[in-house]
């Protein structure tokens, strides 16, 4: 069992007493102080084998002391405690060189275990720390579920491990991916996102790996793929469960070999990207159904992160509401406050749309209501008229033109400020032709003569389309 002297710094006498009792029972020698000045004097004189310190001290912030400690004694483990419990606190603790971050209140057994592990490990070399992070907090919440996510993210910042983010729609999967990039060692490189569900199946490989001029109809010039665009940075593969099997095979090859070829190309291209994937589906179930490669799953799922739905972190609702009201105010909407009773009403709601639904509600309250203070009655009014569910929207009556327009809006949004590669006209026609011919053949029970007549095309033209599009023809004698 490891032994040593633990330097404890906290201005709360009760916490010092509890820590002293727990660490002494574990066999450690404990020295206690209530300020950073004494802690620094002990450290600078060579005392102590490990430091346990609160962030907020009466004379100095621990984050100001930490760099001096790491510079003078880079092998001295420092465990940081904080009651602030924000994402940025965890990140700053990691950036400043802390061995571990513990949000208050914490479990004493966990603390003792961390102390033992820190003293048992070989002394680590000092890691160059990135510049001070800004205060634009990308993730909001102090619930236990979010605290665990912050701690995992903080440990991942200086690694290139692949991460799989799983969570319901609206939980903030892309925000987590961006946080991993923006506060990690690849933050100076590009962050490139691609939504598998928004890209036509026959175009995904070209989107990921790029294509050469003439590689397919409409490819009038060479186009760089997302892997090439993300070189030196992070590639975020959203809705990875919707990736077709052929593209999965090519992606697995890239992850295994670290190189790829463009569609229509022959020269291998080396790649240097960190992969972060996300899904709202059960990939293990897709594996059992033969829709997702098991070997690719294990390549991507090196570090799994589950984002909790909002109904599992309702204690974060007040912080989220204040955060979204502040964002709305920065965008020029009127400043708002909210009653405690209104917050209680929000806590009792189920939030099927998760954090995204809450954000939309707050923006609506900011824009549509003249009241400076949002009451419980206004919340009841809004929540009693819920927006249509996804299923209702999909089942709503909409003509073909409207459906295509909605699809194209989603498609263009997936590219952000960029444009899709050339050849969009032919790709869209191909996307429409396949279900159109399939429906005609189904309606005529596989009779190609009747299907050609129904479509108003020549029978030879229909046969060519069936062959080119690889449409499955099922004939019936009924």
From TrEMBL:
Pfam families: AAA_lid_14, HTH_8, Response_reg, Sigma54_activat. SMART domains: AAA, REC. InterPro entries: AAA+_ATPase, AAA_lid_NorR, CheY-like_superfamily, Homeodomain-like_sf, HTH_Fis, P-loop_NTPase, Sig_transdc_resp-reg_receiver, Sigma_54_int. Keywords: Activator, ATP-binding, Cytoplasm, DNA-binding, Nitrogen fixation, Nucleotide-binding, Phosphoprotein, Repressor, Transcription, Transcription regulation, Two-component regulatory system. One of its GO terms (cellular component) is cytoplasm. The modification 4-aspartylphosphate is found at residue 54. One of its GO terms (biological process) is regulation of nitrogen utilization. It is found in: Cytoplasm. The keyword Ligase does not apply. One of its GO terms (molecular function) is sequence-specific DNA binding. It comes from the Bacteria. The keyword Chloroplast does not apply. Residues 139-367 form the Sigma-54 factor interaction domain. Member of the two-component regulatory system NtrB/NtrC, which controls expression of the nitrogen-regulated (ntr) genes in response to nitrogen limitation. Phosphorylated NtrC binds directly to DNA and stimulates the formation of open promoter-sigma54-RNA polymerase complexes. This is DNA-binding transcriptional regulator NtrC. The gene is ntrC.
